[in-house]
């Protein structure tokens, strides 16, 4: 393997390292909508007879970016493989949200060193949110010369050019744009699902919660034009997709940046979704601050809009919420929660919570516990606070020992488990609509899918049901999932 060190990198051309400081800036210039993606002629067949593998960490946005990168690689003739040994290109699409997510990726990059030694022609690329961080890029440069290519979240559309450079140069190619990206509309996508699909409605985040790295790694909020989204969803409906999930880091801010569309928001977009013949529409992630009455009213109309709201609260203490920069108090969150619940009575609610934020007191943590009890969440993701270099919270002194943080997480998880069991128990003997997603992970003889409220349902039935909407009677409500019987006689709800 040719050693690629910082000394023989051509800084002038393909060495563009990231800067968190630049990424913090929010420029006022209008977002450019670009429609000129194409593969350079000399790269159109470069992948014929070759294989690619993309490993994805992190959230749905990363999963969807992987579908776009797969689409680009397939346009160049590459085929997907699940076997790293057979791959000619391996891309690691990374997540920077917490330290343990990053450690996992570094561990993995280390293990790929042997693969590179066995196959020196292999191109090893690192992309995604970690690539937007200076510390990460510097560490790869210093310690992982087996990496050939590093690119960020804003220049995915340049993958053909960057791959070409990596293939033909002996230097590590680094291109990470810290200036927030534009919107490239005509990128190919190779969707992983055949009846469920993700649809980006906006990119980036301007909320700058004090603990969070996302606004730095994903740039400023940029909304796609509603017509582009409507066209994409109509096309998915035409192809027979049954469920779409509208994606963004803060979908409730959708539309705020659209020129000449002052009052257009997520409520308007969801109203458009109701008119499209697709059986299920979901959206994630909601930020409580921007969740407006119009959206609540539209969700209340039901139809294909699923009754599941993921509403991250992060903390039940108004003091902590203030230091987190979340822009709402405990009381405002609870008001919003009850307003949605009253308008969409069958809705299930899930949340995200961070415990052990710097200097969180036992009393403040108890406020989180009492909020969780009041909301009786159906489920949620709970995390121990992880300092992210470059964010304001990482500079705060912290007097909470790790042991106390772990103990709080345990207490919270126990409560969440109890509440999940309690909310599942309400489904006992009920008939539910399930979108059958495939075989259950634990038992291939069992089928698995989700209700509209996002509960996992397992039941026995023929494989031909995969991809269909069916009726299932719940016979055993467990803590984290529901077991049921397929109602063969009931009409297959193939709307
Ligand atoms: N945009 C979404 C969240 C995206 S990140 C929102 O605002 O709700 C997903 C979750 O990771 C967050 O909701 C938060 O609970 C958690 N998270 C983010 N940064 C974190 C950090 N530094 N330490 C621990 N958890 C964090
Ligand atoms: Fe991070 Fe806050 Fe933006 Fe969510 S809203 S991505 S937590 S900064
Ligand atoms: Fe992770 Fe980036 Fe998503 S940091 S959670 S992959 S936006």
Describe this structure as you would to a colleague.
It is a single chain. The chain is an alpha/beta fold. It folds into three domains: 15-175, Methylthiotransferase, N-terminal domain (Rossmann fold); 183-425, pyruvate-formate lyase- activating enzyme; 431-486, Nucleic acid-binding proteins (OB fold (Dihydrolipoamide Acetyltransferase, E2P)). It contains 14 helices and 22 strands. The strands form six sheets. Strands 1-8-7-6-5-3-4 form a seven-stranded parallel sheet, with helices on both faces. Strand 3 (51-56), helix 3 (60-75) and strand 4 form a beta-alpha-beta unit. Helix 9 (266-274) runs parallel beside helix 10 (293-300) and helix 13 runs parallel beside helix 14. The structure holds S-adenosyl-L-homocysteine, iron/sulfur cluster (SF4) and FE3-S4 cluster. Residues 97-98, 211-212, 214, 249-250, 285, 287, 312, 314, 352, 354, 383, 385-386, 388 line the site of S-adenosyl-L-homocysteine (SAH).
What small molecules are bound in this structure?
Answer: S-adenosyl-L-homocysteine, iron/sulfur cluster, FE3-S4 cluster
- Biggest β-sheet, characterized? 7 strands, parallel
The total of beta strands comes to: 22
Structural class: alpha/beta
Helix content: 25-40%
Overall 3D geometry? globular
Write down the domain tally: 3
Question: How widely separated are the two ends?
Answer: 56 Å
Q: Roughly what is the average pLDDT, rounded to an integer?
A: 93
What is the CATH topology classification name of the largest domain?
pyruvate-formate lyase- activating enzyme
> How much of the residues is beta strand, in percent?
15-25%
Q: Kindly report the spatial arrangement of strands forming the biggest sheet.
A: 1-8-7-6-5-3-4
In CATH, what is the class of the largest domain?
Alpha Beta
How many distinct helices? 14
Contiguous low-pLDDT stretches (5 residues minimum) are: 1-11
Radius of gyration: 23 Å
Provide the CATH superfamily of the largest domain.
tm_1862 like domain
